[in-house]
Amino acid sequence: MKLLAKIALTACLATPVAHAANNHPIVLVHGFLGFGPDSLQGTGFSYWGGFNDIAAHLRSSQHPVYAAGVGPVSSNWDRAVELYYQIKGGCADYGAQHAAQHAADGEIQQPAGKCWAADPANNPNNYPLALYPSWDAQHPVHLVSHSQGGQTVRTLIQLLENGSPNGNEGGGALYTGGKIGWVTSAATIATPHNGTTLRDVIVDFVPKVSELAGQIVEVAGLGGSTAAYKFRLEQYGLAQGPAESIADFIGRTDGAPFWNLDNHDAAQWDLGPDGAAELNAWVKTSPNVYYYSIGSRATAQGSFCCNDTDRLIAPFQSSSYQYARNDMIFFLKNTAGEWVVPSILQPGMGSYRQSAAGRVPTDSTWYPNDGVVNTVSMRAPAGQPVRNYNGSSVKGSWNYLGYVDQYDHFDVIGWDQLPGGVYPIYDNLAAILYGL
């Protein structure tokens, strides 16, 4: 049995606020390779809670809570666009300038099918219903996100308030800017604000991103032989057929420009330290929003035997490296249980660093991680204001609630815990948000 959660800052599990000062809806935004409630139906498994249900638990306190489903491997720009229209209603418009910049990768501005109906009484195409069509400055939301979802909600807030950095995107409602007050708060859980070194660790050895994405889904048990899990890449002309399995989809689309590592309009770029730095150069912390961050860490420091020059020597352990539990990082094992990353590099993220010219350097402060994201990257985007939460919240600054110790990247969303094991984290976060 795993250790019970420890919170580095006790404020994260502080006594809940006695009464709600607001009842704005919470919108849950999933991370890389995540999925919404319309996926995996009939399995009883949800992104937010695993075989439990965090959204339903929060709703039990009479608060409106919605779970979104955006592109699992798409860029944060594309995911933010989809999130906007999914909440408000309408058809996804990725922007004329943006689509033109990525035309060589295959992106189009307005793909067919990515629409949500704002009015259930006027829905001749039977589109999925928008989550909260009345969304505006008088009817704001709280955005709660996990992993890449944190980058996505930051991008959405930037576009809402400031519009596109590219100028005229063709008139899409999202790109006009000026939507101040639409988001009351943005909370991120285990988000790679400054990227994750896992991207580089994996790409060094499994450079074909399409095969990697397919393998992760299959090993996670999300793909199977059905089309219950979708990559949602219609904007790239890569729509899965109604009954097309993950394996068949990957095989059919292998070699498409989207999967190329040079494509900067994809999650695989945004999630690395270099891609995250590029995103952070234009996605800023809004002075109008309360930001919160929660980290996670599940690695342990090795026993002394080697010095830092012995990074590639295994199975010895360096006293400075961080090592994963045996039950962690399930997606780095194939269906036979063998490590995708060679065993000589088993320490993985816990020993990875690089200082190549022109790239974001990573050093030993990046070693502690939750199996997917470096803990140091979860606190706040580099260069943005950050403070330790002390019971009071400040707009325009990252209110850091600390990290959950010995919970890995999926423990914090309840995938591998005893029933209700993560509910206190979300109860107390909700208490903070509803107390604003």
Radius of gyration: 21 Å
CATH arch. level architecture: 3-Layer(aba) Sandwich
List unreliable stretches of 5+ residues.
1-18, 303-317, 330-347
Q: What percent of the residues sit in helical stretches (DSSP H or I)?
A: 10-25%
Report how far apart the termini are.
Answer: 37 Å
Please report which band the strand proportion falls in: under 5%, 5-15%, 15-25%, 25-35%, 35-45% or over 45%.
Answer: 5-15%
- Whole-number mean pLDDT: 83
Kindly describe this structure.
By secondary structure, the chain is α/β, with parallel strands linked by helices. It starts with 5 loop residues before the first strand and ends with a helix. The radius of gyration is 21 Å and the shape is globular. The strands form 3 sheets. Strands 1, 2, 3, 6, 7, 8, 11 and 12 form an 8-stranded mixed β-sheet that branches. It contains 10 helices and 12 strands. It has one domain: Rossmann fold, CATH 3.40.50.1820.
Overview features:
two-stranded antiparallel sheet, 8-stranded mixed β-sheet, alpha/beta, globular, 436 residues, 10 helices, 12 strands, Rossmann fold, single chain
What order do the helices and strands come in, and which of them pair?
Layout: E1 6-7, E2 26-29, H1 54-59, E3 65-67, H2 76-88, E4 90-91, H3 96-101, E5 115-116, E6 141-146, H4 148-162, E7 183-189, H5 198-203, H6 209-219, H7 246-253, H8 267-270, H9 273-280, E8 290-297, E9 300-301, E10 322-323, E11 386-388, E12 398-405, H10 423-434
Helix pairs in contact: 2-4, 6-7
